[in-house]
Automatic annotation (TrEMBL):
This is GTPase Obg. Keywords: Cytoplasm, GTP-binding, Hydrolase, Magnesium, Metal-binding, Nucleotide-binding. Monomer. It is found in: Cytoplasm. GTP binds at residues 165-172, 190-194, 212-215, 282-285, 313-315.
Length: 430
């Protein structure tokens, strides 16, 4: 099954907690604090695997979690760092934040990596807090929480050449003739339901990847038929082969078909029509095909269209080899796959410093409890070790330095009022 859009949840590993310990050995005078630091949590990393062609592996597995770092030990021993979790994706995968829709990365090269969930750093042990004023601190940090987020993965097939056209114009047949691919071929429309890829290898040593895309119909760019689902894959192609069938039994006008497909491509992304496009007149072995082609050429000339036309019959192999040679020539003169407008804009974006939002906010609930929220203060709480009195006093000093005490007074807090931060509730003391 071909899957090209998925949403996954990732959670990086938490850093290990720092330890509170003291060294007491017979022949080690003044051993002092000896609590070691916690280890780094594992990150979740996407890595490109050129052997993959679909996001099918994510259909039944949506959650990826990295391991947490080891806790610090006594005798100044550090906790072990957790290994990163690597998730394989096919080349051509675009990664976005599912909540903000921010572009996080465009993965196109084999082995390319992208960290989508960064592991938390390990907490410091009490050996880090010893100083002249407090030579035996009972203070340590908990590990930093790992990043947790939802990610949208979108695959745009990486192919050098894309075959476009109405259903049943001969795209799959051409692919099967020039490559070793075995696409489904039948005498009814929408035989191709997913993109098919094949490698074309010419006698002179040149090769390229050819993609047979599901047939387009009128209104495809608005979601009619299968078009909107797979039009995104045309964005990656460097050369477009536009197949138009010369079969009088269909009762359709080849020129109108040609114009309609171009209209759908332009509506979806005008940049697609700026790429090299070759018109391929198919089924030239059928009776009446020559007359239809002559009429088609006349209408193109009247419209001022100068695109080169190749006449082929995939059944008899007429004109197929010259078409492939011409396609290879165009690829040699065409740059690597073009980015879409949005991707190009994101890639060129200059990130400037933006001041952070408020470190905390205070609200009062119906029961009179003051609720403190904010990413910065919640992170501080999660990294505070409150099992020792020194740790509690340090946390109180940090809250005071952030201005929370004063803010609570301004919000109307009095001595003895309850204050809640995450899952921790305490009394406000003047």
């Amino acid at each position: 099954m071909f899957v090209d859009q998925v949403k996954i949840d990732v959670k990086a590993g938490k850093g290990g907690d720092g330890a509170v310990a003291f060294r007491r050995e017979k022949f080690v005078p003044l051993g002092g604090p000896a609590g070691g630091d916690g280890g780094r949590g594992g990150s979740v990393i996407l890595v490109v695997d050129e052997g993959l062609r679909t996001l099918m592996d994510f259909r039944y597995k949506h959650h990826f979690k990295a391991n947490s770092g080891g806790n610090g030990q006594n005798k100044q021993m550090y906790g072990h760092g957790a290994e990163d979790t690597f998730v394989q994706v096919p080349p051509g995968t675009i990664v976005r934040d599912a909540d903000t829709h921010e572009l996080l990365g465009d993965l196109t090269e084999n082995g390319q990596k992208l960290v989508i969930g960064r592991g938390g750093r390990g907490g410091r042990g009490n050996m880090r807090f010893a100083n002249a004023k407090n030579s035996a601190p009972e203070v340590a940090e908990n590990g930093e929480p790992g990043e947790e987020r939802s990610i949208q993965l979108e695959l745009k097939v990486l192919a050098d050449v894309g075959l476009v056209g109405f259903p049943s114009v001969g795209k799959s047949t051409l692919l099967s003739v020039v490559t070793s691919a075995k696409p489904k071929i039948a005498s009814y429309q929408f035989t191709t339901l997913v993109p098919n890829l094949g490698m074309v290898q010419l006698d002179d040593g040149r090769d390229f990847v050819l993609a047979d895309l599901p047939g387009l119909i009128e209104g495809a760019s608005d979601g009619i038929g299968l078009g909107i689902q797979f039009l995104r894959h045309v964005e990656r192609t460097r050369v477009v082969l536009h197949l138009v069938e010369m079969d009088e039994q269909t009762g359709r006008d080849p020129y109108e078909d040609y114009e309609q497909i171009n209209h759908e491509l332009e509506t979806y992304d005008p940049k697609i029509l700026e790429r090299p496009q070759v018109i391929v007149a198919t089924k030239m072995d059928l009776p009446g095909s020559a007359e239809l082609l002559a009429d088609f050429k006349a209408k193109l000339a009247a419209a001022g269209n100068t695109h080169e036309i190749f006449e082929i019959s995939s059944i008899t192999h007429q004109g197929v080899q010259p078409l492939m040679n011409k396609t290879a020539d165009l690829l040699a003169d065409t740059a690597e796959f073009p980015m879409g407008d949005e991707e190009a804009t994101e890639a060129q974006k200059l990130y400037q410093y933006q001041p952070e939002g408020p470190a905390f906010e205070i609200e009062q609930d119906e029961e009179g409890t003051f609720i403190i929220t904010g990413a910065k203060v919640e992170r501080l709480f999660k990294m505070s070790n409150l099992t020792h009195q020194d740790g509690v006093m340090r946390f109180a000093r940090q809250l005071r330095s952030m201005g929370i005490d004063e803010a609570l007074r301004e919000a109307g807090a009095h001595d003895g009022d309850l204050v809640a931060l995450d899952n921790f509730t305490f009394e406000f003391v003047e």
